[in-house]
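Form 7-S
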Amino acid sequence: MNSLLIGTAGHIDHGKTSLIKALNGFEGDTLKEEKDRKITINLSFSNLNFKDKRISFIDVPGHKDLVKTMISGAFGFSACLFVVDINEGLKEQSLEHLEVLELLGIKDIILIFSKCDLCENLKERSENILKNLNFTPIKIFYTSIKDTKSIENLKNYLLTLECKNANENLIFRYYIDRVFSLKGIGTIVTGSLNEGSISLNEKIICLDNQKELIIKNIQNHETNHTTIKAYNRVALSLNCDHKELKKGYILSKKGYFKAFKECDVLIKAKNLKNEKMIFCVGTKQIECKISILKQLKNDEFFAHLNFEKNLFLCFNERFILLQNNRVVGGGRVLNPVSEPLKKEAKNKLLNLLKEEKLKESFNYLKEIHKYGFGLLSSYQRFKLRHEDALNLAKELDNVFVDEKELNIYTLNNLEQIKKLITFIIEKNPYAMLSAHSLALRIPWASKSFCELALKNTKELSLNKGIYFKKGIDFNKIEEKNNNELFNIIKKQGIYPKAPYNIYDFLDLDRKSGDEILKKLTKNSLVVRLAHNLFIEKKALDNLMKEFLELLKHESLDVQKVKEKFNLSRKYAIAYLEYLDKNEKVQKINEKRFLKTSI
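Output:
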């Protein structure tokens, strides 16, 4: 089930709110100030239902000082009733509202001539107004709230309009426009659901405060629902304190959006300058600093925006720019993430994104990111789910696509890894390699990409999942590394290094190294004292003898052991805990004593 979201636009006192009241009986101006001043100040929301048809109305103020409120409402429009008093014609806010509609990409505009009962030269006045419009209305109506037939004609037309079909692949994103609390229910938020779907008891996240929430109830047109999708006006009951949420906060699904204080955009504006402005997106307004990257044709610019706070923007998201409370321009977010590129490279990428040439963008990015281009943020960056992003990546030439790690690598990088492999086995013929151990050495390379490199290195053989130099007996390699690992631990005495450091020194993959340590421990040559602390058994026995000798004259604690043996706290604790197993030793208040000395 979805409904048509229809907003109003137009100059103050041209009859927007009166028109909504005539259509559905809803009185939008409920505040005392609205009644006293006879103007709309807040957004008002109402509906019109007929059989299975549902229309949601968003009525916005027309006063020039309330343009921010108008903009926050306009982000929810699917279509618009553009209201013009036929007697006054197009006024200041008529034109500014039209600019907002154009910048937000709202094309389904129904032109409503209001107060037609007061006009004597209807045809002449309407023709005059139509000449000055920069759009073609999908329909024109001549109305008067005193003419029931004109209102009925408009209502009947609206009920014939098809609901806008939502893209099923989009992720739930929902800007809050109101927050309040109801006794017995709790926290309620309202907003226009323009992307994705949501279900009862589903877990979501408020991106602005990173609070995880659960949907307790969903309501649309005063009806409860178990699931709802765009496009709809939606009220949600949430399991949190209403003070934790604010107008402008955005609700979404966890794991899709990261926060950034910058983005790259396409702006349409006249005489744009590198200045501070107010950035309006959804129901949020925040200050930004504009840095022009390149001026294009038709009053368009590529620009970099810096914000005072983190935002969770998405590819192709629309925005409006204000300065001194007036609309300066607006546009689309092209790159919502931080991308440290030089200006020339960035402009080339933005040009591809402007035309929505995503395959070409992928191709360009994998060339720029020479050590792998990640697709983990593909939804935020391109509005593509991972599956779609991977399918697009597979269409590229000369690439390896790691489906598990969501990375794209150029095959040229494969040669780099193969050269490293050759270097390792020439330096150490007894090296035991795996994709995992190789990926630990190369921070930019995934395990799957390393596996591909190992498989394509001709000088290697494979046994038990381990790659080793061709022509050398595998049992001999295992025996050699077993002895080498034990000798290193033996030489280190009571100051052993972490096993992984030894593995790297011997060019051992971690699994093989762990297996060797298990054997040494099983044969009582090495003792494991902690997760990554292994010591030769003889060295440990000698240390315990020294401890017992000291205990004949004094107690031992962590601080004393650290000082006397020049050990770290971690090692001192491990050795003392091993000492505690000796039946001759007693521990009292973190100090150790010989039982015979108590």
